[in-house]
Amino acid sequence: MVRWIRVLYSDFESFTEDQEMLIMAENSFDYIEGFVIINRTGILNNWRASFKPQDPVQASHFQSDGRVLYCLELTKNFNSGDTDTMEQEVAVLLSRLRFIQSTLFHTDVTYLEFLDRVHTSELKLRAQSLWEVPHPWLNLLIPRSSIRRFATEVFGRILKDSNNGPILLYPVNKSKWDNKTSVVIPDEEIFYLVGFLSSAPSLSGHGSIAHAMSLNSQIVEFCEEADIGMKQYLAHYTTQEQWKTHFGARWETFERRKHRYDPLAILAPGQRIFPKASLPLSL
């Protein structure tokens, strides 16, 4: 079984510090993921369809309209006969967090139901013809030292009045990544994954792909101009010079690997990193 929990924050610093504390703790939740919520009304009422509030009276008085809020989603796995022990462990963990107390919601589901939660959402969207639409997603890796500045600009200005889908925001430890791969990540030990999971269900206006792509461009341009150390995850660049900038000091290592394992540049031509037969004969 899984105890599935959601809470809200209004203070960004508390939200990020609590997440960092949880990912560093020896005993923590089994799943930790943060979200940014912009200009959403009736958030807690929407949660009531699947979750129950810890304090129904306090929850009924919470107002979310016109605010930037931060949601922390947590789970604790347990066997059905160990409910009391699980609840004690969860209570201790929650006591260390600084969320808005009236926004504590939870539910118990099977492990399979939790793993399949996105499919449940998919079925609802398919019923509304909102699943098979363009999804111009943007995934960024932001150094811990820059996340506050990033949030102020992006959530406080660029996306202040409009966003087209879920926004993920949570910290990860650099030490957990395999440094033998070619993935490019920020230099700091803790950095944040920020995922803009946009949908474009209409041909014009705020729901169009043009609008979503414009917002993505504004976010990337800010990161580059402010030089905050951002790296794109699953990046899409169109020139080799852009790729060199992306890889930075790791470019030469990446180029050597390409020459060794794919000297004719046959693989992945669509990424436009290496034109065919453009590699030097020896590296």
TrEMBL record:
Q: Which GO terms describe its molecular function?
A: cytokinin dehydrogenase activity; flavin adenine dinucleotide binding
Give TM segment ranges: none
Entry keywords, A to Z: FAD, Flavoprotein, Oxidoreductase
- UniProt-listed InterPro entries: Cytok_DH_C_sf, Cytokinin_DH_FAD/cytokin-bd, FAD-bd_PCMH_sub1, FAD-linked_Oxase-like_C, FAD-linked_Oxidoreductases_BP
Q: Outline the extent of the Cytokinin dehydrogenase 1 FAD/cytokinin binding domain.
A: 1-274
A Gene Ontology biological process noted in the UniProt record is:
cytokinin metabolic process
The source's domain of life comes to Eukaryota
Question: Is Oxidoreductase tagged as a keyword?
Answer: yes
- Identify which cofactors the protein needs according to its UniProt entry: FAD
Q: Which Gene3D superfamilies match?
A: FAD-linked oxidases, C-terminal domain, Uridine Diphospho-n-acetylenolpyruvylglucosamine Reductase, domain 2
Q: Which SUPFAM superfamilies match?
A: FAD-linked oxidases, C-terminal domain
EC number(s) on file: 1.5.99.12
One Pfam match:
Cytokin-bind
Q: Which family does it belong to?
A: Belongs to the oxygen-dependent FAD-linked oxidoreductase family.
The subunit field of the Swiss-Prot or TrEMBL record says: Monomer.
What name does this protein carry?
cytokinin dehydrogenase
Q: Give the gene that encodes this protein.
A: LOC542507
